[in-house]
Amino acid sequence: MRKIIAIHLLTLFLFSALVPVQVQEELAKLPTLLKHFDEHKIQTPDLSLFAFLEMHYGEEFAQHRSAHDHSKLPGKGACNHLHAPAPAVLPVAILTTASTPVAVAKQPVLSDQSYTFILPHDIWQPPRA
After folding, report:
1. Which of 37, 35, 59, 57 is nearest to 47 (CA)?
2. Is residue 106 part of a domain?
């Protein structure tokens, strides 16, 4: 039983992590689409699923639009998404005048210039009785 619950929770987690929210919202409307298909199937018993999808998502939708409310079907709601690509602005090379290079004198590193005095050595000592 735990294994089944774990598989279901893992599937739910992966679905929610990998599928965008807009797609999840549209997939949640699939039962409405099937219910609407059943309504059409009652009116026209020989209607196939492909013909139904063509009627609602194809070129025939302009004629069929006024017959029913289609706002709750997947892909038919008001979409308020904004896609505004921003142009990439490349930095302009700054022109500088040529100057003479300055030589920097190198300081030798001495062995007594360590920073070990900053570290508290008492932390790593065992407790004393």
Report:
1. 37
2. no
* pTM exceeding 0.90: no
Tally of domains in the chain: 1
Q: Write out pLDDT tens, residues 33-76.
A: 888 888 888 888 888 888 888 887 777 776 666 667 777 777 77
**9 pLDDT exceeds 70?**
yes
Percentage of the chain exceeding pLDDT 70: 67
Residue 61 is inside which H or E element, if any? Answer: helix 61-64
**Is residue 86 situated within a structural domain?**
no
Give the domain extent around 54: 25-75
Measured distance CA(24)–CA(28) in Å, rounded: 6
Q: Which helix (H) or strand (E) holds 125?
A: none
Say which residue the tokens 């007594």 belong to.
Answer: 112
Residue 126 has pLDDT above 80, yes or no: no
Nearest alpha-carbon partner for 36 in 82, 67, 3, 10: 67
- Asked if 57 contacts 75 with a C-beta cutoff of 8 angstroms, the reply is yes
Helix (H, G, I), strand (E, B) or coil at 98: coil
